[in-house]
Amino acid sequence: MARTLETPAPARRFRQSAGRQHHAGPVTYVLLVVAAFVSLFPLYWNVVAASHTGERVVAAPAPLLPGKRLLDNLSFAWNQVDMGEALVNTTIVASLVALSTVLFSTLAGFAFAKLPFRGRGLLLSLVVATMTIPPQLSVIPLYQIITDLGWFDQLQSVVLPSLVAAFGVFFMRQFLLEALPTELVEAARMDGAHSLRIIWHVVFPVARPAMAVLGMLVFVQAWNDFFWPFIALTPDGSPTLQVALAGLGAGNHTVDHAVVLTGALISTIPLLLVFAFLGKHIVGGITAGAVKS
Amino acid sequence: MATSVRAKRAGSPPPAAPPSSPGRPRGRRAVPAGLRGRLYRWDIKAIPYVFIAPFFLTFAAFGLFPLLYTGWLSLNRVELGGDPTWKGLENYTDLATSEFFWNALLNTFTIGVISTVPQLLMALGLAHLLNYRLRGRGFFRVAILAPYATSIAAATLVFAQLFNTDYGMINGLLGWIGVGPVDWESSKWPAQIAISAIVTWRWTGYNALIYLAAMQAVPQDLYEAASLDGASRWRQFLSVTIPSIRPTILFTIIVSTIGATQLFGEPMLFGGSVGISGGSGNQFQTLSLLMYEKGWVTGALGQASAIAWVMLLLLLLIGGVQALVSRRDRTKPGR
Description:
- The structure holds two protein chains of two kinds.
- Chain A is an all-alpha fold.
- Chain A has one domain (77-292): MetI-like (MetI-like fold, Orthogonal Bundle), CATH 1.10.3720.10.
- Helices cover 70% and strands 0% of the residues of chain A.
- The longest helix of chain A has 36 residues, at 257-292.
- Residues 1-20 of chain A have low confidence and may be disordered.
- By secondary structure, chain B is an all-alpha fold.
- Chain B has two domains: 3-52, no CATH class; 98-331, MetI-like (MetI-like fold, Orthogonal Bundle), CATH 1.10.3720.
- In chain B, 70% of the residues lie in helices and 1% in strands.
- Chain B has helices at residues 3-8, 33-73, 90-96, 99-130, 137-149, 152-162, 169-176, 188-216, 220-228, 233-244, 246-261, 265-270, 287-298, 301-331, and strands at residues 76-77, 85-86.
- A two-stranded antiparallel ribbon of chain B has the order 1-2.
- Classes of the chains: A mainly alpha, B mainly alpha.
- Chains A and B meet through helix 1, helix 2, helix 5, helix 6 and helix 7 of A and helix 2, helix 4, helix 5, helix 6 and helix 8 of B.
């Protein structure tokens, strides 16, 4: 973005950031390197711990360099503790939740941003207000319901409550409010297009970048969700990775800390890979969603 | 786009006729104009509600109904798998006299403060640093966001090892400079600090990026004016940056407070086999942990429901304070 400095367009100049005309001094770099180190070191050490024996992990001084046991630990975690099944379950849950949240949030976000209807303002404030309700308020009845339905320890019990999220509706509404010209919707309407056609041919093409970002954010959230899955699923039934990890952490299968941390690594690696490749877009999505709210 | 199709349909008023997509049954075209017109008007009027229906139906089924039902359960004695019997406000009065409840409430508050305040202050500082013209900006941003991609469970299991009293690396480092060993698990304050460290580690980068985006939207003129007035960069940070991003700061305070109120996974997994009771002496048992213990260990779902509703009331209280603060903000002159 520093390149935009060369373009003298006044609109761009307005968006220039405050400090950015100042070059960072050495102190800034030192502090940022420290911050990056603190952020990344626990992840690095997770790899280190997952590559030693359990005895070595719990011996002082703690190991700092990778050992040779990574593959053994991985295969043990995969076969004995069934992290493989948990990985598949988590992928299914997170994908379904992300897909459905993106779809329904785009529809609702479009309605709130561009379609006039009675009660719009009130309903939108209601959507925002629901964001503050913690899951603790619903888990007891939900637990009774899924038990009655025979869904306890089945994946649908964690998918269904997360089919759409207030955050997503608000996120898409904020995006479409600015990104989608109202005239475009009206023109399509004048051409006689019905609403589903408008959604498909006008809204989706415009919303695609925001849908992608929302999809990634929701995927990460669903992947890492803990409280409700911990209640609705069991480590020995059909767990997500987080539930399996909780079982490992509580010593359900093993007290071999190297295996526990190998499990943690298995749960983290897929998301870190996503971040390594798409990190820039996720960073952009987080910042875009927050400023407008 | 589909004008030729429309022209071929004899007698139908053009704007009222939605062009049919190829996959649509052809019979639709034979519908009389009046009905089609009505369908069109129905489409305009009803479709917004159809689009928002999935959210509100999901919320009604999995949010509102359970919330109200939890409220009703909180007025009953409910055992796991048993029928409720009416108790009135007894669950709440029991809580008011329970030392475990007050302990959990206090722990939730102290861990909340220790994890939120340094987290947001550091995030502000980091955002300020990232706002300079930097080499490797993309790397730094992704690096500080990496903890956000790490789950509560994975992060806590790693930190539990790093904070281990006997062999953990943190006591190793402290011993090296002649401090400790600190008992991070069974002493109250060290345990709460360790748990707060996990929360802080996971969320600082995320908040920093939110602040950064807000800082980048601050108009340049404000800084130019300030620097013409001879304000130092620190002065500019305090009197231009901070006031300009105040709404964003308020937003992050709210989000962090909501998160802190429901803290569960970090203390539970940090405590290992005594996690649900929040350590052997309940020294880091939060409201969420107490609720889980009441509901799923003791099997007293009525009491657990009462704790859940206390949390809701707390959040409403916080929301009320926030609304007051932001209203005072708006009515301040010159804002």
